[in-house]
Design a protein that fits this description.
Blueprint (H helix, E strand, L loop, with lengths): L1 E2 L2 E7 L1 H18 L6 E6 L3 H10 L5 E2 L2 E2 L3 E2 L2 E2 L17 E9 L3 H12 L4 E9 L1 H5 L6 E5 L5 E2 L15 E7 H4 L1
Parallel strand pairs: 3-4, 3-5, 3-8, 8-9, 9-10
Antiparallel strand pairs: 1-2, 2-12, 6-7, 11-12
Helix pairs in contact: 1-2
Bound molecules: inosinic acid.
């Protein structure tokens, strides 16, 4: 599959994602029983993961989508915006940030810092994917679906320059179409 200048090949099929999502939800159902957590899925990337995950969450919970961004193209710009969209009071709440992918961890660290400042009771993160640099930096992600190397992925909510979020499987970039010529 070609998107703009990059070629992608199927990497994690939808069936494998479904199984992993069910596994993660089961852990949350167990760990957050009687805690009424507030899920904060980070838009846009986590919309598909959050929807599938929350269908498997069987405990009472709240959901509030939030937004922030540090990416442009395939490289982190390092520029961070503040968290927007959390309309409910998060004071004294058990918060679970829902991310599509944690790469440098800059986005997540900034969100966690902001939420702690708002007086949250607990702040944890769940991410479907985690890249090598997040592991090296020991970014605190309590629940992780799949660990990746330093590869660029797309699909299941993740994009390349705004494209590709709609696919139900996850693809990874192989080589640029420029190189392929
Ligand atoms: P971080 O701040 O470097 O951890 O970047 C986190 C955000 O960058 C994610 O929520 C994604 O939106 C985006 N991102 C990081 N890696 C990828 C990728 O491989 N494909 C698509 N988006 C990515």
């Amino acid at each position: 599959m070609k998107i703009k200048d990059l070629e992608f090949k199927k990497f994690i099929p939808a069936t494998k994602i479904d199984d992993k999502v069910a596994e993660l939800a089961a852990q949350i159902n167990h760990d957050y029983k009687d805690k009424t957590p507030v899920f904060l899925p980070v838009l846009n990337g986590s919309f598909m993961f959050a929807a599938d995950l929350l269908k498997e969450v069987k405990i009472p919970c709240r959901v509030s989508f939030v937004k922030t961004s540090s990416y442009s193209g395939t490289m982190s710009t390092g520029q961070l915006k503040t968290l927007i969209g959390h309309d409910e009071s998060l004071f004294n709440q058990n918060i679970l940030i829902v991310e599509d992918i944690v790469d440098s961890g800059l986005t997540l660290e900034k969100i966690i810092e902001e939420l702690r400042g708002l007086g949250a009771k607990s702040v944890e993160a769940i991410s479907l994917l985690r890249k090598k640099s997040a592991r090296e930096k020991k970014i605190d992600v309590k629940y992780v679906g799949f660990d990746l190397e330093d590869e660029f992925v797309l699909g299941y909510g993740l994009d390349y320059d705004g494209l590709g979020r709609n696919y139900k499987d996850i693809y990874k970039a192989t080589r640029s179409t420029e190189e392929a010529k």
